Amino acid sequence: MxxxxxxxxxxxxxxxxxxxxxRAFQELxxxxxxxxxxxxxxxxxxxxxxxxxxxxxxRVISLCVEVAGGRVPVIGGAGSNETAYAIDMAQRIxxxxxxxxxxxxxxxxxxxxxxxxxxxxxxHDATDIPIIIYNVPGRTAVNVSNETFAKLSKFPRIIxxxxxTGDLARVAMQRRMCxxxxxxxxxxxxxxAGFNAMGGVGCISVTSNVAPDLxxxxxxxxxxxxxxxxxxxxxxxxxxxxxxxxxxxxxPVKYALSLMGLCSEELRLxxxxxxxASKAKVRAALEELGLIG
Length: 293
Fold this sequence. Notes:
The protein is an alpha/beta fold. The chain has helices at about 20-35, 55-70, 85-95, 115-125, 135-140, 145-150, 170-180, 190-195, 210-225, 225-245, 250-260, 275-290, and strands at about 5-10, 15, 20, 40, 75, 100-105, 130-135, 160-165, 185, 200-205.
């Protein structure tokens, strides 16, 4: 099975005059691979999946798969709060050639733990590729319990979790309850090194859109059990981590990329550009890392 570990970038979807900027996106993907990024997630939350049409969703994932060319794994966003739609989208992007799907819990309708098990069972049975569960209660108002993960981890192709709870104690409990082979990826940049020290194997990262080389080096250090180096890199990246979440993701990261000349800061409503204080923090963090003059 493809290895999912290290620095995995939750890619932004660049826009130009209201449409997906395909050239900018392709260049962002190539930049990631050149910088040592270990994997890519197109059309997740950071990719503004909620505002893309189905055609755009498939097109962006196709472009990512095409540019990556098998050099790094591609995990396609395919989650929904409607099981039938999640299955339909997962089947479509499976045909595109992704290596796995990232499937979020049911937002807004707030399913029970039994509902989550039924949802992921149906998704598993309707697809043929690995599934990584995206647990992000801050956005969905649903938290997958450790007991539910223990049950879901027994399915052959439910292979791991993107954990954006910020609760590092969960890593140890999930290792105990799901087994050491269950892939745990952090969904929070600021605690990524600590997450790995507890037993995680990587991070699906927002910050790596901006500083892919440093994020890849940090994850490589963790994979090598070199936490002296990892802590030093985490300290360097901490102001950028903080700055990129001073307003709703992905508005700060798109602003950062615009300052670096990599894409526009254009978003789709209801998202708007970050407020001035956020912009100032983003600019200062980029300057400190030497990413802009």
